[in-house]
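I hope you will forgive my troubling you with a question about protein structure. Here, with my thanks, is the record as I have it:
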Amino acid sequence: QILKMAIAKHWSHLSDHFLLWDSDMIIVNKMDLFHENKVVVHSGGHYITAYDDTYQRLLGRSVERDDNGGSFTTHHMVVNKLFMNKLLDVLSVNGSDSANSWITNVLDNAGTSI
């Protein structure tokens, strides 16, 4: 998903919100992505504890869970372009202006158990 997220930095015609979708998924039921102009956040996806350390190293904070302790890892994500650009900036090495520095930082910090 992280490679798909980078479209926010590289395509100027992208809408303010955009949908990332796993290419191996098919919608079989109606799915609301917005409710009263707010993004509907889905949770309960598959949880892999090995991601916790990488998340902590990259963002300097703990992984957040839903009310049932589940993850927010789902097969799709509605993304706010402005927030995604800020996230990619945070992931960049030393605040570098290089558009690819976040990629190197993610790869350098990924745990070997992932």
In short: The mean pLDDT is 82. The chain is about 30% helix and 10% strand. The beta strands are 17-21, 34-35, 38-39, 76-80.
